[in-house]
Amino acid sequence: MGQLDGKVAVITASTRSIGRGIAEAFHAEGAKVVVSGRNPEKGAKAIEEMGGGDRLHFIAANASKQADIEALVDGTVEKFGRVDIIVPNAGGVANTAPVAMMSDEEWQYELDFNINQTFWMTRRALKYMIPQQHGRIIGMSSMYGKISTMAVPGYITNKHAIIGLMKAVAKEVGTQGITANAICPGFVPTDMFYETGPATVEAMGLPDLDALAQIMYSVTCIQRPNTVEEVAAACVLLASDLGAGISGTTINVDGGASPY
C-alpha cells in the first residue's frame, strides 16, 4: 500500500527536472498522475520512461497561459474523475534584467510564469476540491522566496508571493479538508540549471556556472546541493494523509540556507 493510493495528482512542468521527480514519487506511492509540459513528444517519452500504465496520463499545457492551466485541471478530472493533489511546479528565472531595465512585457511574463500559474491552478482546483472536501495544494517557492540575490528581481518577487498565496488559501479552506503549503527548494542542479544558468552568470558578472553553483550551496549547512529526490519526498509528505495537519506553512528543502 502506497501513501497516495487512490489519489489523483497533477503537476505542471513535470516531464523533467524537479517536476518529473515529484511525478515519479507520487506514482511510486500509488497515485494516478497527470504529467504536463509544453511538448507532447517529451510528455510521451516521460510517460514511457515512468513505466506507462493506466495510472499515468499526459496533458500538454503552457504554464504561462491561463486557458492551458484551467484546461489542465479540468482534463485531469475528466480523465480520472477527481483531483486531490496539485503541484504548480512550473516557473523559474524568465528574465535577468534589473528592475530599472525590465520592460512591462518582461515583468508580466515573470508574473504569468510563476505566481499567476500558481493562482490559476489553485483557483481551478478548488472548484473540485471544495465539494469533495479534500485536497492538497503544494506551491513551489524557493530558498529565494525567503532571501534575495542579484539580477533576478522577478524570480525573487514571485517566489515570495507564492508563500503568501499558500498561506491565504490555507486559511480560507482549512476547515474543508484542504491544505495548502509551499516547498522551498535550495540549489538543485538539474538540466534546467545548465540551460538557464548562463544568463544569470552573465548578469551577476561571474566567470562560469561552477561559480554560481558554489555561491548557491556555500550558504547551506550541508555544503552541497540538494537533490530532486529530497524535494519530492517533502511533497509526498504534504500530499499524504500524514500531512493533513500541516497547512499554511513552508517546508525548506534547502540544506539550511534560509534563515527561517
Protein model, in words:
The chain is of the alpha/beta class and 260 residues long. It has a single domain (8-253), classed as NAD(P)-binding Rossmann-like Domain (Rossmann fold, 3-Layer(aba) Sandwich), CATH 3.40.50. The chain is 47% helix and 14% strand. It has helices at residues 17-28, 40-49, 66-80, 104-132, 153-173, 191-204, 209-218, 228-239, and strands at residues 8-11, 32-37, 56-60, 85-87, 135-140, 178-185, 250-253. A seven-stranded parallel beta sheet has the order 3-2-1-4-5-6-7, with helices on both faces. Helix 1 crosses helix 8 (228-239), helix 3 (66-80) runs parallel beside helix 4 and helix 4 packs parallel to helix 5. It is globular and about 50 Å long. The mean pLDDT is 94.
List the keywords:
260 residues; alpha/beta; Rossmann fold; 7-stranded parallel beta sheet; 8 helices; 7 strands
Multimeric status of the protein: single chain
CATH superfamily: NAD(P)-binding Rossmann-like Domain
Distance between the termini: 35 Å
- What's the CATH class, please? Alpha Beta
Kindly estimate the percentage of residues that lie in beta strands according to DSSP. 5-15%
**CA radius of gyration:** 17 Å
Please outline the major beta sheet.
7 strands, parallel
How are the strands of the biggest sheet laid out side by side?
A: 3-2-1-4-5-6-7
Number of alpha- plus pi-helical segments: 8
CATH architecture tag: 3-Layer(aba) Sandwich
Secondary-structure element string? EHEHEHEHEHEHHHE
CATH topology: Rossmann fold
Average pLDDT value?
A: 94
| Helix percent band | 40-55%
Q: In terms of per-residue confidence, which ranges show pLDDT below 50 for 5 or more consecutive residues?
A: none
Structural class: alpha/beta
